[in-house]
Amino acid sequence: MSQTLFVGIDLGTSGCRAIAINGDGQPVAQATTSIPAPIRDGKRVEQDASIWWQAVQETIHGLLAQVQVESIKGIAVDGTSGTLLLVDDKGEPLAPALMYNDGRSQAEALRIDKVAPQQSAAHGATSALAKLLHLQSGPEVHYALHQADWISGKLSGQWGSSDENNCLKLGFDAINNGWPAWLEQLGVNQTILPKVYQPGTAVATISPKIAQQFKLSRATQIIAGTTDSTAAFIATGANQVGEAVTSLGSTLVMKVISDRPIFSPRHGVYSQPLAGRWLVGGSSNSGGAVLQHYFSQQQLTEMTAQLKPDHATGLNYYPLINPGERFPIADSRKPPCLSPRPEDDVVFFQAMLESMARIEQQGYQLLAELGAPYPSNVRSAGGGSANPAWTKIRQTLLGIPMLEAQHQQAAYGSALLARQGYLDKPGI
Protein backbone atom coordinates (compact mmCIF):
# COMPACT_ATOMS: atom_id res chain seq x y z
CA MET A 1 0.00 0.00 0.00
CA SER A 2 1.38 3.40 -0.93
CA GLN A 3 2.27 5.83 1.82
CA THR A 4 -0.21 8.61 2.65
CA LEU A 5 1.44 12.01 2.18
CA PHE A 6 0.51 15.62 2.89
CA VAL A 7 2.09 18.69 1.32
CA GLY A 8 2.71 22.12 2.78
CA ILE A 9 3.65 25.02 0.50
CA ASP A 10 5.26 28.16 1.94
CA LEU A 11 5.51 31.34 -0.10
CA GLY A 12 8.10 33.60 1.45
CA THR A 13 9.69 36.86 0.37
CA SER A 14 12.59 35.21 -1.42
CA GLY A 15 11.39 31.75 -2.33
CA CYS A 16 8.81 29.01 -2.39
CA ARG A 17 9.35 25.85 -0.34
CA ALA A 18 7.29 22.67 -0.28
CA ILE A 19 7.55 19.81 2.20
CA ALA A 20 5.80 16.43 2.05
CA ILE A 21 5.18 14.58 5.31
CA ASN A 22 3.76 11.13 6.00
CA GLY A 23 0.89 10.29 8.32
CA ASP A 24 3.27 10.26 11.29
CA GLY A 25 4.41 13.79 10.53
CA GLN A 26 7.84 12.77 9.30
CA PRO A 27 9.23 14.78 6.34
CA VAL A 28 9.87 12.59 3.32
CA ALA A 29 10.72 15.17 0.65
CA GLN A 30 11.21 18.88 0.12
CA ALA A 31 11.90 21.28 -2.72
CA THR A 32 12.65 24.98 -3.06
CA THR A 33 12.47 27.57 -5.83
CA SER A 34 13.78 31.12 -5.53
CA ILE A 35 11.55 34.13 -6.20
CA PRO A 36 12.85 37.48 -7.48
CA ALA A 37 12.49 40.42 -5.15
CA PRO A 38 9.37 42.58 -5.41
CA ILE A 39 9.53 45.91 -7.21
CA ARG A 40 10.28 48.71 -4.75
CA ASP A 41 9.86 52.43 -5.22
CA GLY A 42 9.70 54.30 -1.94
CA LYS A 43 6.71 53.00 0.00
CA ARG A 44 5.50 51.09 -3.08
CA VAL A 45 6.25 47.37 -2.97
CA GLU A 46 4.57 45.27 -5.69
CA GLN A 47 4.92 41.91 -7.35
CA ASP A 48 3.40 40.19 -10.36
CA ALA A 49 1.40 37.28 -8.95
CA SER A 50 2.34 35.10 -11.93
CA ILE A 51 5.82 34.92 -10.36
CA TRP A 52 4.29 33.13 -7.37
CA TRP A 53 2.46 30.59 -9.51
CA GLN A 54 5.52 29.87 -11.61
CA ALA A 55 7.57 29.26 -8.45
CA VAL A 56 4.85 27.05 -6.97
CA GLN A 57 4.67 24.93 -10.13
CA GLU A 58 8.44 24.49 -10.25
CA THR A 59 8.52 23.60 -6.57
CA ILE A 60 5.69 21.07 -6.86
CA HIS A 61 7.40 19.42 -9.81
CA GLY A 62 10.61 19.19 -7.79
CA LEU A 63 8.76 17.68 -4.84
CA LEU A 64 6.74 15.18 -6.85
CA ALA A 65 9.89 13.82 -8.46
CA GLN A 66 10.81 12.44 -5.03
CA VAL A 67 7.55 10.75 -3.98
CA GLN A 68 4.75 8.52 -5.17
CA VAL A 69 2.38 11.12 -6.58
CA GLU A 70 -0.77 9.08 -5.92
CA SER A 71 0.07 9.09 -2.18
CA ILE A 72 -0.61 12.82 -1.79
CA LYS A 73 -3.97 13.35 -0.09
CA GLY A 74 -3.94 17.01 0.96
CA ILE A 75 -2.21 20.32 0.23
CA ALA A 76 -2.16 23.50 2.33
CA VAL A 77 -0.52 26.84 1.52
CA ASP A 78 0.82 29.65 3.69
CA GLY A 79 1.90 33.08 2.48
CA THR A 80 3.02 36.50 3.63
CA SER A 81 0.54 38.23 5.91
CA GLY A 82 -1.10 41.37 4.53
CA THR A 83 -0.18 40.82 0.87
CA LEU A 84 -3.29 41.61 -1.22
CA LEU A 85 -4.34 40.80 -4.78
CA LEU A 86 -7.53 41.75 -6.66
CA VAL A 87 -8.78 39.26 -9.27
CA ASP A 88 -11.66 38.86 -11.71
CA ASP A 89 -14.31 36.14 -11.77
CA LYS A 90 -11.82 33.67 -13.27
CA GLY A 91 -9.15 34.40 -10.67
CA GLU A 92 -7.01 36.43 -13.07
CA PRO A 93 -5.08 39.26 -11.39
CA LEU A 94 -6.28 42.74 -12.30
CA ALA A 95 -3.11 44.47 -11.10
CA PRO A 96 0.15 43.59 -9.37
CA ALA A 97 -0.16 42.39 -5.78
CA LEU A 98 0.56 44.91 -3.05
CA MET A 99 3.10 43.17 -0.84
CA TYR A 100 2.90 42.88 2.93
CA ASN A 101 5.25 45.84 3.43
CA ASP A 102 3.72 48.20 0.85
CA GLY A 103 3.16 51.35 2.90
CA ARG A 104 1.48 53.74 0.49
CA SER A 105 -1.97 53.56 2.07
CA GLN A 106 -1.39 56.27 4.67
CA ALA A 107 -4.62 58.18 4.00
CA GLU A 108 -6.62 54.96 3.95
CA ALA A 109 -5.14 53.96 7.30
CA LEU A 110 -6.41 57.22 8.81
CA ARG A 111 -9.90 56.42 7.54
CA ILE A 112 -9.71 52.98 9.14
CA ASP A 113 -8.55 54.48 12.43
CA LYS A 114 -11.78 56.49 12.64
CA VAL A 115 -14.14 53.52 12.47
CA ALA A 116 -12.28 50.31 13.37
CA PRO A 117 -12.18 49.17 17.01
CA GLN A 118 -8.82 49.33 18.70
CA GLN A 119 -8.40 45.56 18.77
CA SER A 120 -8.72 45.19 15.00
CA ALA A 121 -5.63 44.01 13.15
CA ALA A 122 -6.69 46.15 10.17
CA HIS A 123 -5.02 49.28 11.51
CA GLY A 124 -1.93 50.64 9.78
CA ALA A 125 -0.89 51.56 6.26
CA THR A 126 0.42 48.06 5.55
CA SER A 127 -2.82 46.27 6.50
CA ALA A 128 -4.67 44.39 3.77
CA LEU A 129 -7.74 46.54 4.39
CA ALA A 130 -5.79 49.77 3.81
CA LYS A 131 -4.47 48.26 0.58
CA LEU A 132 -8.00 47.30 -0.51
CA LEU A 133 -9.20 50.87 0.01
CA HIS A 134 -6.14 52.17 -1.82
CA LEU A 135 -6.83 50.02 -4.88
CA GLN A 136 -10.38 51.38 -5.27
CA SER A 137 -11.98 48.13 -6.43
CA GLY A 138 -14.31 48.47 -9.43
CA PRO A 139 -17.04 46.27 -10.94
CA GLU A 140 -14.48 43.99 -12.59
CA VAL A 141 -13.17 42.93 -9.17
CA HIS A 142 -14.76 39.71 -7.96
CA TYR A 143 -12.39 38.67 -5.17
CA ALA A 144 -9.92 40.29 -2.80
CA LEU A 145 -7.39 37.59 -1.97
CA HIS A 146 -4.23 37.07 -0.01
CA GLN A 147 -1.15 35.33 -1.36
CA ALA A 148 -2.06 31.91 0.09
CA ASP A 149 -5.70 32.30 -1.01
CA TRP A 150 -4.77 32.87 -4.63
CA ILE A 151 -2.39 29.91 -4.82
CA SER A 152 -5.03 27.69 -3.18
CA GLY A 153 -7.50 28.97 -5.77
CA LYS A 154 -5.09 28.14 -8.59
CA LEU A 155 -4.86 24.60 -7.23
CA SER A 156 -8.60 24.11 -6.75
CA GLY A 157 -10.03 26.28 -9.51
CA GLN A 158 -12.38 27.75 -6.89
CA TRP A 159 -12.06 31.32 -5.67
CA GLY A 160 -13.14 33.37 -2.73
CA SER A 161 -11.86 31.29 0.20
CA SER A 162 -9.38 32.29 2.89
CA ASP A 163 -8.46 31.56 6.50
CA GLU A 164 -8.88 33.35 9.82
CA ASN A 165 -5.24 34.32 10.19
CA ASN A 166 -4.79 35.88 6.76
CA CYS A 167 -8.09 37.76 7.03
CA LEU A 168 -7.33 39.53 10.31
CA LYS A 169 -5.53 42.39 8.55
CA LEU A 170 -8.45 42.65 6.12
CA GLY A 171 -10.74 43.45 9.04
CA PHE A 172 -12.11 40.00 9.91
CA ASP A 173 -13.46 39.75 13.47
CA ALA A 174 -12.14 36.44 14.77
CA ILE A 175 -13.88 36.79 18.13
CA ASN A 176 -17.35 37.08 16.57
CA ASN A 177 -16.30 34.97 13.57
CA GLY A 178 -17.49 37.31 10.84
CA TRP A 179 -16.91 40.42 8.76
CA PRO A 180 -17.76 43.41 10.96
CA ALA A 181 -20.49 45.95 10.21
CA TRP A 182 -18.07 48.88 10.46
CA LEU A 183 -16.61 47.92 7.06
CA GLU A 184 -19.74 49.43 5.53
CA GLN A 185 -18.72 52.86 6.85
CA LEU A 186 -15.59 52.59 4.69
CA GLY A 187 -17.56 51.69 1.57
CA VAL A 188 -16.07 48.20 1.36
CA ASN A 189 -17.83 45.98 -1.16
CA GLN A 190 -18.29 42.95 1.05
CA THR A 191 -19.26 40.69 -1.86
CA ILE A 192 -15.58 40.52 -2.84
CA LEU A 193 -14.42 39.50 0.63
CA PRO A 194 -13.52 35.81 0.95
CA LYS A 195 -15.36 33.14 2.86
CA VAL A 196 -13.28 32.50 5.95
CA TYR A 197 -12.27 29.06 7.22
CA GLN A 198 -10.32 27.90 10.24
CA PRO A 199 -6.77 26.88 9.24
CA GLY A 200 -6.61 23.16 8.65
CA THR A 201 -10.15 22.88 7.21
CA ALA A 202 -10.74 21.11 3.91
CA VAL A 203 -12.27 23.65 1.51
CA ALA A 204 -12.11 22.05 -1.95
CA THR A 205 -10.65 19.28 -4.06
CA ILE A 206 -7.94 19.86 -6.62
CA SER A 207 -9.12 21.03 -10.04
CA PRO A 208 -9.16 18.40 -12.80
CA LYS A 209 -6.78 20.59 -14.83
CA ILE A 210 -4.18 20.79 -12.06
CA ALA A 211 -4.63 17.14 -11.16
CA GLN A 212 -3.82 16.23 -14.75
CA GLN A 213 -0.89 18.65 -14.92
CA PHE A 214 0.83 17.12 -11.88
CA LYS A 215 -0.59 13.59 -12.24
CA LEU A 216 -2.24 13.96 -8.82
CA SER A 217 -5.37 12.15 -7.71
CA ARG A 218 -8.56 14.08 -8.41
CA ALA A 219 -9.52 13.39 -4.80
CA THR A 220 -6.57 15.46 -3.47
CA GLN A 221 -7.93 17.96 -0.97
CA ILE A 222 -7.02 21.62 -0.78
CA ILE A 223 -6.88 22.63 2.88
CA ALA A 224 -7.19 26.13 4.35
CA GLY A 225 -3.70 27.37 5.19
CA THR A 226 -2.48 30.32 7.20
CA THR A 227 0.12 33.10 7.30
CA ASP A 228 3.81 32.29 7.04
CA SER A 229 4.56 33.29 10.64
CA THR A 230 1.72 31.17 12.02
CA ALA A 231 2.81 28.18 9.93
CA ALA A 232 6.32 28.59 11.31
CA PHE A 233 4.92 28.64 14.85
CA ILE A 234 2.96 25.43 14.23
CA ALA A 235 6.08 23.78 12.83
CA THR A 236 7.99 24.22 16.10
CA GLY A 237 5.74 21.83 18.00
CA ALA A 238 4.50 24.40 20.54
CA ASN A 239 0.84 23.59 21.20
CA GLN A 240 0.01 24.11 24.88
CA VAL A 241 -1.12 27.25 26.70
CA GLY A 242 1.99 29.04 27.96
CA GLU A 243 4.33 27.67 25.33
CA ALA A 244 6.06 30.38 23.31
CA VAL A 245 8.08 30.80 20.15
CA THR A 246 10.55 33.57 19.40
CA SER A 247 11.41 34.04 15.75
CA LEU A 248 15.01 35.22 15.49
CA GLY A 249 14.99 36.41 11.91
CA SER A 250 15.41 39.84 10.39
CA THR A 251 13.18 41.04 13.21
CA LEU A 252 12.27 39.59 16.61
CA VAL A 253 8.77 38.13 16.80
CA MET A 254 7.48 36.86 20.14
CA LYS A 255 4.30 34.76 20.43
CA VAL A 256 2.80 32.80 23.30
CA ILE A 257 -0.24 30.50 23.31
CA SER A 258 -3.07 31.90 25.43
CA ASP A 259 -6.55 30.67 26.28
CA ARG A 260 -7.91 34.16 25.55
CA PRO A 261 -7.04 36.95 23.14
CA ILE A 262 -5.14 40.06 24.19
CA PHE A 263 -5.40 43.25 22.14
CA SER A 264 -3.39 46.36 22.91
CA PRO A 265 -2.51 48.32 19.75
CA ARG A 266 -0.78 51.02 21.80
CA HIS A 267 1.68 48.37 22.94
CA GLY A 268 1.97 46.71 19.53
CA VAL A 269 0.25 43.57 20.87
CA TYR A 270 -2.08 41.50 18.69
CA SER A 271 -3.80 38.11 18.83
CA GLN A 272 -4.79 35.56 16.24
CA PRO A 273 -6.82 32.36 16.54
CA LEU A 274 -5.15 28.98 16.45
CA ALA A 275 -6.99 25.70 16.98
CA GLY A 276 -9.43 27.06 19.55
CA ARG A 277 -6.76 29.08 21.36
CA TRP A 278 -4.93 32.31 20.65
CA LEU A 279 -1.45 33.35 19.65
CA VAL A 280 -0.66 36.55 21.51
CA GLY A 281 2.42 38.46 20.54
CA GLY A 282 4.28 41.35 19.07
CA SER A 283 7.09 42.13 16.66
CA SER A 284 10.17 44.22 17.38
CA ASN A 285 12.10 46.05 14.67
CA SER A 286 15.31 44.83 16.27
CA GLY A 287 16.81 41.57 15.09
CA GLY A 288 19.09 39.98 12.56
CA ALA A 289 18.75 42.80 10.04
CA VAL A 290 20.62 45.05 12.46
CA LEU A 291 23.42 42.51 12.84
CA GLN A 292 23.72 42.15 9.06
CA HIS A 293 23.82 45.92 8.72
CA TYR A 294 27.11 45.97 10.65
CA PHE A 295 28.66 42.63 9.75
CA SER A 296 28.79 40.19 6.86
CA GLN A 297 27.46 36.68 7.34
CA GLN A 298 31.00 35.36 7.34
CA GLN A 299 31.99 37.75 10.11
CA LEU A 300 28.95 36.79 12.18
CA THR A 301 29.76 33.11 11.79
CA GLU A 302 33.39 33.60 12.79
CA MET A 303 32.52 35.79 15.79
CA THR A 304 29.82 33.43 17.10
CA ALA A 305 32.51 30.95 18.16
CA GLN A 306 34.21 33.70 20.19
CA LEU A 307 31.17 34.80 22.21
CA LYS A 308 31.36 34.56 26.03
CA PRO A 309 27.76 34.22 27.24
CA ASP A 310 28.86 33.79 30.88
CA HIS A 311 30.62 37.17 30.84
CA ALA A 312 28.18 40.03 30.18
CA THR A 313 29.55 43.06 28.35
CA GLY A 314 27.74 45.55 30.57
CA LEU A 315 26.65 47.50 27.50
CA ASN A 316 22.98 48.44 27.19
CA TYR A 317 21.90 49.04 23.60
CA TYR A 318 18.64 49.23 21.71
CA PRO A 319 19.66 47.80 18.32
CA LEU A 320 17.73 49.35 15.44
CA ILE A 321 18.74 50.35 11.92
CA ASN A 322 16.37 53.31 11.70
CA PRO A 323 14.29 55.18 14.26
CA GLY A 324 11.02 53.52 15.18
CA GLU A 325 9.94 50.54 17.27
CA ARG A 326 6.74 48.47 17.40
CA PHE A 327 7.07 46.18 20.43
CA PRO A 328 7.64 45.98 23.36
CA ILE A 329 7.88 49.75 23.03
CA ALA A 330 5.49 51.23 20.48
CA ASP A 331 7.28 54.43 19.51
CA SER A 332 7.60 55.42 15.85
CA ARG A 333 10.40 57.82 16.77
CA LYS A 334 12.44 55.65 19.13
CA PRO A 335 16.08 56.19 18.13
CA PRO A 336 18.65 53.41 17.74
CA CYS A 337 21.14 53.14 20.58
CA LEU A 338 24.40 51.39 19.71
CA SER A 339 26.98 53.43 21.53
CA PRO A 340 29.51 53.45 22.94
CA ARG A 341 30.92 51.03 20.41
CA PRO A 342 33.85 49.00 21.75
CA GLU A 343 36.95 48.49 19.64
CA ASP A 344 36.48 44.71 19.79
CA ASP A 345 33.87 43.67 17.21
CA VAL A 346 33.10 40.49 19.14
CA VAL A 347 32.17 42.52 22.21
CA PHE A 348 30.02 44.80 20.04
CA PHE A 349 28.30 41.75 18.55
CA GLN A 350 27.68 40.17 21.95
CA ALA A 351 26.34 43.44 23.36
CA MET A 352 23.78 43.59 20.55
CA LEU A 353 22.74 39.99 21.25
CA GLU A 354 22.40 40.75 24.97
CA SER A 355 20.28 43.80 24.20
CA MET A 356 18.01 41.83 21.87
CA ALA A 357 17.61 39.23 24.63
CA ARG A 358 16.47 42.02 26.96
CA ILE A 359 13.94 43.13 24.34
CA GLU A 360 12.65 39.55 24.21
CA GLN A 361 12.39 39.36 27.99
CA GLN A 362 10.63 42.74 28.17
CA GLY A 363 8.27 41.59 25.44
CA TYR A 364 7.14 38.46 27.24
CA GLN A 365 6.91 40.37 30.53
CA LEU A 366 4.66 42.96 28.88
CA LEU A 367 2.44 40.24 27.42
CA ALA A 368 2.10 38.74 30.91
CA GLU A 369 1.19 42.13 32.39
CA LEU A 370 -1.54 42.47 29.77
CA GLY A 371 -3.04 39.10 30.69
CA ALA A 372 -1.26 36.47 28.62
CA PRO A 373 0.62 33.66 30.37
CA TYR A 374 4.31 34.18 31.01
CA PRO A 375 6.03 31.49 28.92
CA SER A 376 6.54 28.09 30.49
CA ASN A 377 9.15 27.46 27.81
CA VAL A 378 10.39 29.04 24.58
CA ARG A 379 11.25 27.46 21.27
CA SER A 380 13.28 29.40 18.74
CA ALA A 381 12.81 29.75 15.01
CA GLY A 382 14.81 31.58 12.38
CA GLY A 383 18.51 31.87 11.70
CA GLY A 384 19.40 33.10 15.18
CA SER A 385 18.18 29.86 16.74
CA ALA A 386 21.41 28.19 15.59
CA ASN A 387 23.53 30.41 17.87
CA PRO A 388 24.09 28.47 21.14
CA ALA A 389 25.72 31.39 22.92
CA TRP A 390 22.75 33.62 22.20
CA THR A 391 20.43 30.86 23.42
CA LYS A 392 22.31 30.75 26.72
CA ILE A 393 22.15 34.53 27.09
CA ARG A 394 18.41 34.44 26.44
CA GLN A 395 17.77 31.58 28.84
CA THR A 396 19.58 33.39 31.62
CA LEU A 397 17.36 36.44 31.17
CA LEU A 398 14.07 34.61 30.63
CA GLY A 399 14.62 32.09 33.43
CA ILE A 400 12.71 29.32 31.65
CA PRO A 401 13.63 26.24 29.59
CA MET A 402 14.69 26.84 26.00
CA LEU A 403 13.37 23.93 23.94
CA GLU A 404 14.53 22.90 20.51
CA ALA A 405 11.96 23.46 17.78
CA GLN A 406 10.74 20.22 16.21
CA HIS A 407 10.97 21.84 12.79
CA GLN A 408 12.05 25.26 11.50
CA GLN A 409 10.23 25.51 8.18
CA ALA A 410 6.85 27.20 7.72
CA ALA A 411 6.12 24.68 4.95
CA TYR A 412 6.23 21.93 7.56
CA GLY A 413 3.57 23.76 9.59
CA SER A 414 1.38 23.97 6.50
CA ALA A 415 1.92 20.28 5.84
CA LEU A 416 0.61 19.59 9.36
CA LEU A 417 -2.48 21.65 8.51
CA ALA A 418 -2.93 19.61 5.33
CA ARG A 419 -2.79 16.42 7.39
CA GLN A 420 -5.23 17.88 9.92
CA GLY A 421 -7.70 18.84 7.21
CA TYR A 422 -7.57 15.43 5.58
CA LEU A 423 -7.90 13.51 8.84
CA ASP A 424 -10.40 16.06 10.20
CA LYS A 425 -8.73 16.10 13.57
CA PRO A 426 -9.37 19.05 15.89
CA GLY A 427 -6.33 21.00 16.98
CA ILE A 428 -2.79 20.78 15.78
What are the main properties of this structure?
428 residues, alpha/beta, Nucleotidyltransferase, domain 5, 2 domains, 6-stranded mixed sheet, 30% helix
Can you walk me through this structure?
By secondary structure, the chain is of the alpha/beta class. Helices cover 30% and strands 23% of the residues. The chain has twelve helices and 19 strands. It has helices at 49-64, 106-115, 128-135, 147-156, 164-167, 208-214, 228-235, 288-294, 297-304, 345-369, 388-398, 410-423, and strands at 5-11, 15-22, 27-34, 39-41, 44-47, 72-79, 84-87, 97-98, 143-146, 161-163, 195-197, 202-205, 221-227, 243-248, 252-258, 270-274, 277-284, 377-381, 402-403. The strands form five sheets. A six-stranded mixed sheet has the order 3-2-1-6-13-12. The chain has a six-stranded mixed sheet with strand order 16-17-15-14-18-19, sandwiched between helices. It has a three-stranded antiparallel sheet with strand order 4-5-8, with no helix packed on it. Helix 10 runs parallel beside helix 11 (388-398). The mean pLDDT is 94.
Number of domains: 2
Q: Tell me, what's the shape?
A: globular
Distance between the termini: 26 Å
CATH topology of the largest domain: Nucleotidyltransferase, domain 5
Low-confidence stretches: none
Query: What is the residue-averaged pLDDT?
Result: 94
Helix and strand content put the structural class at alpha/beta
Helix content: 25-40%
Name the CATH class of the largest domain: Alpha Beta
CATH structural architecture of the largest domain? 2-Layer Sandwich
Q: Total number of β-strand segments? A: 19
